[in-house]
């Protein structure tokens, strides 16, 4: 069964997933994706090697909460590649999705939606939108529960925990077992945007007792980098900005850090940090964090709560020995449960399921 996969944009961090999935699908994978808006600064330097690629014609309409997207040549792509199953983002803002699903269903072929969950969306429009899909893939248990609450059949929902790092084949990075090598290093990796709340992280580090104040490493780029650098000068000069890093250079920084912190939205970098045996602090944002950040390997904090974030950092850095044990648990979870291969396996299983069970009509 040949499979088509529609994305608004093919971000570089998703390329390993798509290539891994292409290898697992006997009929191959055709990826359809276009360009982001310039201000999004999404890295697209990596290209798929195992999957075939079709560059989509993206039309971006409006912005913010009114944003909409149309991919104008989606039916041309479908006619040319003729997929037997289709995976597409389950996002009501992507107006071309309805046409793509209708094209597939007229030919008796299944459509799989891929999304975070319903979020705050509900009502008749959501129920109509979910009718486009014969199965759903979501990142988390909370995402699955939201789809069930919206009336989607539980047996047609698959959880593929968000991953960007493969199953570790190397040993854990070596760190001192019950001490820090100098000042502890708190690491953030991700895009530099207001919703990431890095201002909170700087203030939380500045509020630490003198003996616990860490070096704060910020890796990534984005529209507010200049603003954050100015904030760091006045709030927490121990902050270092590295820009966007990839591959072995990024892994080396993960391996040198002592604690990974994600104070705002997002979650993909958490799994990468776990592959380097890092304990975690993460805000309870879109629900994807809950399956990754557990009592044995980290702390979840309330979004926007500076005091709670400060206390979590203090608790973690006050006991280096316990911190290392939590890092070991992170490494175990990535090795045994949540990794790139496991995520691709869920996608492949969902395709096999809809092929076997047929359309949800």
Protein architecture, described:
- The protein has 361 residues and is α/β, with parallel strands linked by helices.
- The chain has 2 domains: 180 residues, 3-Layer(aba) Sandwich (Rossmann fold), CATH 3.40.50.2000; 152 residues, Glycogen Phosphorylase B (Rossmann fold, 3-Layer(aba) Sandwich).
- Strand 11, helix 7 and strand 12 form a beta-alpha-beta unit.
- The chain is globular, with a radius of gyration of 21 Å.
- The chain starts with a strand and ends with a helix.
Q: What is the annotated CATH architecture of the largest domain?
A: 3-Layer(aba) Sandwich
Q: Order of strands across the biggest sheet? A: 3-2-1-6-7-8-9
CATH class value of the largest domain: Alpha Beta
CATH topology of the largest domain: the name is Rossmann fold
E-strand count: 15
Can you say what the CATH homologous superfamily of the largest domain is?
A: Glycogen Phosphorylase B
Our measurement of the CA-to-CA distance between the termini, rounded to an integer number of angstroms, reads 20 Å
Q: Structural class, from helix and strand content?
A: alpha/beta
Q: How many whole angstroms does the radius of gyration measure? A: 21 Å
Element pattern in H and E: EHEEEEHEHEHEHEEHEHEHEHEEHHH
Q: How many distinct helices?
A: 12
Q: What is the number of independent domains?
A: 2
Helical residue percent? 25-40%
Let me know the largest β-sheet.
7 strands, parallel
């Amino acid at each position: 069964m040949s499979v088509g996969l529609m994305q608004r944009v093919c971000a570089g961090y998703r390329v390993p997933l798509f290539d891994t999935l292409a290898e697992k699908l006997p009929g191959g994978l055709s990826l359809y994706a276009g360009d982001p808006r310039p201000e999004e600064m999404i890295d697209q330097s990596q290209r798929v090697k195992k999957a075939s690629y079709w560059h989509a014609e993206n039309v971006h309409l409006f912005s913010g909460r009114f944003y909409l997207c149309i991919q104008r040549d989606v039916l041309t792509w479908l006619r040319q590649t003729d997929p037997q199953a289709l995976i597409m983002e389950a996002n009501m803002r992507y107006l071309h999705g309805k046409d793509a699903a209708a094209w597939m269903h007229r030919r008796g072929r299944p459509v799989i939606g891929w999304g975070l969950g319903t979020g705050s969306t509900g009502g008749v429009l959501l129920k109509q939108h979910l009718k486009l899909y014969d199965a759903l893939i979501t990142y988390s248990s909370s995402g699955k529960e939201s789809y069930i609450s919206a009336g989607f059949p539980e047996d047609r929902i698959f959880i593929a925990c968000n991953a960007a790092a493969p199953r570790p084949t190397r040993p854990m990075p070596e760190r001192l077992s019950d001490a820090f090598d100098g000042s502890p290093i708190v690491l953030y990796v991700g895009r530099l945007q207001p919703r990431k709340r890095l201002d909170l992280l700087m203030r939380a580090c500045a509020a630490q007792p003198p003996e616990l104040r860490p070096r704060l490493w910020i890796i990534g780029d984005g529209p507010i980098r200049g603003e954050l650098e100015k904030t760091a000068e006045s709030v927490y000069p121990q902050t270092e900005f590295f820009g966007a890093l990839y591959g072995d250079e990024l892994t080396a920084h993960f391996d040198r850090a002592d604690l990974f912190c994600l104070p705002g939205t997002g979650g993909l970098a958490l799994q990468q940090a776990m592959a380097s045996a890092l304990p975690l602090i993460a805000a309870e944002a879109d629900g994807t964090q809950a399956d990754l950040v557990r009592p044995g390997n980290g702390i979840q904090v309330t979004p926007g709560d500076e005091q709670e974030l400060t206390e979590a950092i203090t608790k973690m850095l006050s006991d280096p020995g316990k911190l290392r044990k939590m890092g070991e648990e992170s490494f175990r979870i990535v090795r045994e449960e949540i990794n790139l291969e496991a995520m691709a396996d869920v996608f492949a299983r969902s395709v096999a399921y809809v092929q076997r069970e047929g359309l949800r009509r």
